[in-house]
Amino acid sequence: MCGIAGILHFRGSVDREELDKFTDSLAHRGPDGRGTFIDKGIGLGHRRLAILDLSEAGKCPMSYGGTDGKRFWITYNGEIYNFLELRNELKSLGYNFRTETDTEVILASYEQWGKDCLFRFNGMWAFGIWDSLERKLFIARDRFGIKPLYYSAMPDRFIFASELKAFTSLKKFPLSLNTDIIPFIIQNPATYEGTTDQTLMKGVRRLLAGRYLTVHENGSLQITKWWETSSHIPLIPNIYEEQVEQFREIFFDAVRIRMRSDVAIGTCLSGGIDSSSVACAMSKIYRSSNNTDLERCPINWQQTFIATFPGTRIDEKDYADEVVKYINAKPNYWIFDENDALNHLIDSVWAMEDVYGGIAVPTWCLYRELRCNNVVVSLDGHGGDELLGGYTWYLDWPMNQVNQNLYNDFHYTLLPAILRNFDRCSMAHGIEVRMPFMDWRIVTFSFGLQPDAKIGGGFTKRILRDSMYNIVPDKILKRVNKIGFNLPMIEWFNGGMKTLIEKVTSHKLWLESPFWDGRALRDQILAKTNAQKWTYNDWGTTLHVWTLMNVVLWQMLFVEKDIKTIQ
Q1: Domain end: 174, 198, 227, which one?
Q2: Contact, 89 vs 18, CB < 8 A?
């Protein structure tokens, strides 16, 4: 997991100083080192988060292939979890390796299979490979868009990076708000990530999930969709009990290969069935496996990280503690502190670098806790809700609409924004999040199931509950209430956020916005805030106001770079 950047000039050479600044703007994603590669018009940058092969040999940009071992150069963010199996296969084909990284396996796979290597990878990735012989750049993103990739195709150059904020470090790059997308974002703040390649920054697009992009030295560019889940559905057993057994086998293997690391790993544990299943599977795998099964798994894997909200209805500590006791893990608690959260609210906005229909600061703070405890990798339960029908409103859907609605939520509406949020909040602290539920084998298997395997008997995630019987505590398996990180928005609008609300709604960007009546809306908001009259009936309104504030905050942070006004 790292931060990547690249520049391809069509009619000139790369400016080393510019590439260095471009690369180092992503230092938070890769605090363990940096590297650059320049060859005339191509420049690749990399900020390293060292997880596999911690030696200097494992750093990027890395080269491979050709008579001199330098035909292909890669800058890479992510993990290929089945790299050991691919490495052995490539060795049998005559390939040699000088490192213990998955990065080198990607390069050898690309040399052997070309773009079709993507189908062989089980993991998450965004990478750029420069072919110095054919003078072309190959950029690819994983099946479901777990790892981010942004690009700008300009008349004289092509630029790409892991995050939007990196583009603010470039020389002569026209920074401005993409006004075309704002009306859509305001109405769909939680769903636009997976439905359009447009971003908040004018001239910068996201490479959508399951796509690869090829750009040649002459500027010709082509984007190809290489993955569609519905085209890869496997044969599913007809008998439900056999489905449960097969699901369990795939899930356990997905967890097992995600435990491969040369640094300490842990898990964020909420006490819900998804994160509990991951934690309990890790425990069972480690304690029942031989050394071959757990090749490259660290000894230090037992740490759990739990967010607690004492005295509130969203506190899940009791459930999480049940799991901790069950698997004999070490708990680390992040106790919600309003002052701490408010003090880092703008930090979380900077990390998110997008409009978000909620506040991400608890997630930001939880991953900070991992870094403070020297845990760099976290196996988390993200994706289970959208894959297996985990939200309570799914129970109200007609059964003949369940699979199609889940497919849309997973690929286009709900999950893409969630993946973005967890990437930004974790990588703000140099933490790699691995998600067993996002294993392509689990995804394709789950979308081949009938709806009643997911929602049945009054329960969501039926097949997961049944597959984890005697593995996860019964108290967790029988939970029907679902709790998320719902912040005290009403209390904050009535008090804690008052100063920030005043500053943002009084800023010229708010007052002169073409998308809302700035003065009238400011007066309405401040009247309720000053009188402390926000109530729980206003929950949706506060989220909408926060969305509008995000549009202004984004411009202040990334276009005007006016951080002092809101500090």
Answers
A1: 227
A2: no
Asked whether 279 and 329 are in contact (CB, 8 A), the reply is: yes
Instruction: List residues with catalytic annotation.
Output: 2
* Length reported for the chain: 567
Q: How many domains does the chain have?
A: 3
| Alpha helices, H only, 435-538 | 440-446, 462-467, 474-477, 489-491, 498-505, 508-511, 518-530
Query: Domain for residue 295, yes or no?
Result: yes
Q: What CATH number did the domain enclosing 367 receive?
A: 3.40.50.620
Each as own residue / partner, the long-range contacts of residues 538-542 (CB below 8 Å, 24 or more positions apart, any chain) are 538/490, 538/493, 539/489, 539/490, 542/489, 542/490, 542/493
Cα–chain center distance at 468: 26
pLDDT digits (tens, 9 = 90+) for 461-507: 999 999 999 999 999 999 887 666 667 788 899 989 999 999 999 99
Is the same domain home to 374 and 296? Answer: yes
- Three-class DSSP labels, 339-377: HHHHHCHHHHHHHHCCCCCCCCHHHHHHHHHHHHCCCCE
**Which amino acid appears at position 190 of this protein?**
A
Contact of 264 with 250, CB cutoff 8 Å = no
- CA Rg value for the chain: 24
Measured between alpha carbons, how far is 187 from 519 in angstroms, rounded to an integer? Answer: 20
Residue 99: partners with Cβ closer than 8 Å, 6 or more residues away: 53, 55, 57, 58, 62
Instruction: Report, as ranges of residue numbers, the positions in the chain whose pLDDT lies below 50.
Output: none
Q: Which residues pair with 159 in a beta bridge?
A: 7, 152
pLDDT digits (tens, 9 = 90+) for 291-323: 567 888 888 788 999 999 888 778 889 999 999
Q: Is the dihedral of CA 94, 97, 100, 104 positive or negative?
A: negative
User: 303 near 264, Cβ under 8 Å?
Assistant: yes
